[in-house]
Amino acid sequence: MAEKKFNRYTITAALPYANGPVHIGHLAGVYLPADIYVRYLRAMGKDVAFIGGSDEHGVAITLKAKKEGKTPQQIVDHYHELIKKSFISFGISFDIYSRTSSLKHHETASEYFHELHKKGVFEEIESQQFYDEKADQFLADRYIKGTCPTCSYVEAYGDQCEYCGSTLSPSELINPKSMLSGDVPIMKATKHWYFPLNKYENFLREYILRDHKEWKSNVSGQCKSWLDGGLRARPMTRDLNWGIKVPIKGAMGKVLYVWFDAPIGYISATQEWATEKGKNWEDYWKKDDTKLVHFIGKDNIVFHCIIFPSILKAEGSYILPDNVPANEFLNLEGNKISTSRNWAVWLHQYLTDFPDKQDVLRYVLTANAPETKDNDFTWKDFQTRNNSELVAIYGNFVNRAVVLTHKFFEGKVPEQQELQKVDEDALRALSFFPDRISDALEGFKFREALNHLIDLARLGNKYLAETQPWKLIKTDSERVATILNISLQMATSLGLLSKPFLPNTYKKLSKIFKFEEMNWRDAGCSDNLKKGVLLGPAVLLFEKIEDNVIEAQIKKLMDTKEENVAPAVKIIPVKKEINYDDFMKMDLRVGEILTAESVPKSNKLLKFIVDTGLDRRTIVSGVAKHFSPQEMVGKKVTVLLNLASRKIMGITSEGMILFAENEDGSLKFVAPDATAINGAEIS
């Protein structure tokens, strides 16, 4: 089948939640790859709408507002501006950066809901939910705290225990309390409007698993797990006073669920942009020759690949996402980024600590992009890549080519003379780079594309090292003219191909090589710079980062870790005293994990088959954010065998694997020696 031709592109980046600043994990996972892709499309002359904005509704906003004694609007106003400023500083080139608290968005989301309601899409379902009588309102899961039934952590939320990772419902908590009043909530009936996802299973299987086999495996795999587990109706409304009011009768005190209204923010933002630019917004959302691509993190896959496409399908006039190239998570110095523990590199702070080094971070985050698995950012790697690649390879090549031209030819591009084999080989190699980088970017392989870019700089350095024009200048100036002409053609191509990745560096190079009129397709050519063109002066593209600068950043993180030690140690108080006979009732054994797999519809749970020496049993554990299934297979573990079985996400768990948590939140095995025999008693 012939590849479909697209005449325009609608590119969206996940709306960041406006209850805090953005950090390097956000940049690496979503916004940087989206920006690189968009800049590439523009360099190719494509018609592109790059849509972004702040997600400003939901429970977390109201919780933060209550905690800080502010209104929800004050919270989102502050963080919307901070986030927007960070994106602008890092060159994230949105065509519009809007917000879901805008009047336009409220109107658009309300109209969309009302249209689906008129079509009879929603199901009205009454259920029992927790209610705070003193506060006189229903409680979202995050408004309830209690003791975790799995690990006894006393500050577990109603939807998740952040200590052991277990997925919970409020009814499972021991001693649940309202976070609004501190009282014990009651159960009370409430009605909500549900979207029947179960009716869209066949459509989704065809759309995702048959029609889009090119999607990344981490995306299609998670979608398949959800589909295989069976979809169910999901509520699209909430009992809350902050958000978009449900626009139908009988819905007083209810707002649209944030995961219904947020993706529609892409549409409302496009409408704003189109009005401002005099365009027709429907061309970008309703025409078959438009390519719609969502850039997101892996925690948003279900919403963008299953829920939002189903909602678009239900309305009937919208195109569906052509691709959703979700990334995995970026860790920091070996540990999961944690906003609550301040274990992060915040973009606005980076700008203060490393002024004018936005491209360095863009380069390092792209080189370490978590495209198919979680990856790690370390300050030492940041320093090494800057010093060994950007300074020693990229900057060194450009600087040598420009400086030598100024020194030997008064800064004017010399003329190519008769070519030798080394010249022909270099020019032939140069010609392949634009297509190599294009192919990688078209396939959303940004790390590969960047590797090709730095390889072009390596090619330039290799060519100069082989030809040594600084030695030949005294005996063969015509030969040197050819060498420097070819070197400058390479440097020009390097600059043109850098535009998506390193926009600030591209601007510096455009002043040297004056390639404003050139575009992506000109890269790789051997005659972009004409004889006699006067080059701009050489400038320092990148500078070496010293050890003391990096040590200061590491110390800042370590100080943060120290600050979090005390509360981490105090999290769980000493439990009620037991006697020796109680302890002896526990049957602790050596086990070995035979198989491990993710639990469908959960990003926290893993299902294990464990050889206990006595039998093989299933154990479910909330450790998916700490370990991949692959790395668990074959591990020797400590198993509590005689724990009463319990159903978790429909799976009967027959025991518990023991872990210890460090102060930074990471988990470690409480593991026996690798030589211990399965089934051996631990006492």
Descriptive tags:
Methionyl-trna Synthetase, domain 2; alpha+beta; 4 domains; Isoleucyl-tRNA Synthetase, Domain 1; 16% strand; 683 residues
Instruction: Please identify which CATH superfamily of the largest domain we are dealing with.
Output: HUPs
Q: Which overall shape is indicated by the principal axes computed on the Cα atoms?
A: globular
Q: What structural class should be given to the helix and strand makeup? A: alpha+beta
DSSP strand tally: 24
Which range best describes the helical content: under 10%, 10-25%, 25-40%, 40-55%, 55-70% or over 70%? 40-55%
The average pLDDT score comes to: 91
| Computed Rg | 29 Å
Number of helices: 21
What is the count of distinct domains?
Answer: 4
Can you tell me the CATH class of the largest domain?
Alpha Beta
Low-confidence stretches: 565-572
Tell me which CATH architecture of the largest domain applies here: 3-Layer(aba) Sandwich
Strand percentage: 15-25%
* Spatial strand order of the main sheet: 18-17-16-19-22
CATH fold-level label of the largest domain: Rossmann fold
What does the largest sheet look like? Answer: 5 strands, antiparallel
Tell me what the structure shows:
By secondary structure, the chain is of the alpha+beta class. The chain folds into 4 domains: 182 residues, 3-Layer(aba) Sandwich (Rossmann fold), CATH 3.40.50; 119 residues, Beta Complex (Methionyl-trna Synthetase, domain 2), CATH 2.170.220.10; 141 residues, Isoleucyl-tRNA Synthetase, Domain 1 (Orthogonal Bundle); 90 residues, Beta Barrel (OB fold (Dihydrolipoamide Acetyltransferase, E2P)). It has 21 helices and 24 strands. A hairpin with an 8-residue loop joins strand 6 and strand 7. Helix 11 crosses helix 12 and helix 12 packs antiparallel against helix 16. The chain starts with 7 loop residues before the first strand and ends in a 14-residue tail after the last strand.
